[in-house]
Amino acid sequence: MMTGRPTTYATHGMVSTPHYLASQVGLRVLQEGGNAVDAAIAANATLNVVLPQQCHIGGDLFALVWDPSDGSLEGLNASGPAPAGASVEQIRALGHSAIPERGALAVTVPGTVGGWAALNERYGSRGLDELLAPASGYARDGFPISAQLARAIDVLGPLLDQFENASNVFRAHGVPATADILKQPALADTFDRVRSEGRAGFYEGPVAADIARTLQAGGSAMTEDDLSGFEPEWVKPLSTTYRGVELVEFPPNTQGPMALLLANIAEGWPVTEMGHTTPAGVHAYSEAVRRALVERNAYIADPRVSDVPLEKFLDRDVAAAHRDAVDQRRPAGLKTEPEPGDTIYLCVVDGNGLAVSLIQSLYMGFGSGVLAPESGVLLQNRGFSFSMDPDHPNAIAGGKRPRHTLIPGMLLRDGKPWTVFGCMGGDAQAHIHMQLLLGLVDFGLTPQEAIETPRWIAAADPQGEPLLVMESRFGQATIDTLYDVGHQIEVGPEWDSRAGHSQLIQIDRARGVLAGGADPRGDGAAVGW
Question: Which residues are catalytic?
Answer without folding.
Answer: 343
